[in-house]
Specification:
Layout (H helix, E strand, L loop, with lengths): L2 H9 L4 E2 H11 L8 H13 L3 E6 L8 E6 L1 H12 L7 H17 L3 H22 L4 H26 L1 H14 L1
Antiparallel strand pairs: 1-3, 2-3
Length: 180
């Protein structure tokens, strides 16, 4: 997830402090992995450098140090809108990694079934965890969990298909390996 767009999105509702932006990020998106405060402030610094946010001095009435609020600029609003309108490219990284491990397992041991079985077990376990968590979730969390579950299901279908084709894949890989 691109933190800069999350922060810009939050700032469309009004100016805010870095710490408050971190709390909002964690509340919406960081349940499993909270964002680091340093990442929030370094992202805000880049957004300021790129004229997408501006700092607003917030003079403390209690005599303490001034706090800095951040506000989105017109350029930031335009950039956020462009990002929202752009579709995300499907991400093949996990599938590519599973495929690479399958091939390497065949090359190393002559059999990828143990690797694929372990991967299937890990996916099923993660699906159980998410399904249990989903039972007591609000709608926004349910939607995120459903997204993850559908991706895990697709991976499981790929694993099952690959297992059914292991002998043929092994022949192709070993044939290619002997020809190089």
């Amino acid at each position: 997830m691109n933190a800069q767009y999350v922060l810009l999105g939050f700032l469309t509702e009004g100016s805010n402090y870095g710490y408050e932006l971190k709390k909002r990020y964690d509340g919406y998106f960081g349940k499993d992995k909270p964002i680091l405060a340093g990442q929030v402030y370094s992202t805000l610094a880049r957004l300021k450098r790129d004229n997408k946010v501006e700092e607003i001095a917030d003079t403390s009435e209690s005599g303490g140090p001034d706090r800095v609020r951040y506000a989105i600029t017109e350029q930031g609003k335009n950039d956020l809108q462009s990002w929202l309108e752009s579709p995300e490219a499907p991400s093949p990284q996990l599938q590519a990694t599973m495929y690479v491990k399958t091939v390497l397992a065949i090359l190393k041991d002559g059999d990828a079934a143990p690797y694929l079985d372990n991967q299937r077990k890990a996916h099923v376990q993660r699906m159980r965890e998410l399904t249990n968590r989903r039972r007591n979730s609000d709608l926004s969390d349910m939607l995120l969990i459903d997204y993850a579950l559908y991706h895990l299901e697709a991976d499981l279908r790929w694993i099952e298909l690959t297992i059914s084709r292991l002998m043929k894949l092994k022949e192709e890989i070993l044939h290619e390996s002997t020809n190089n």
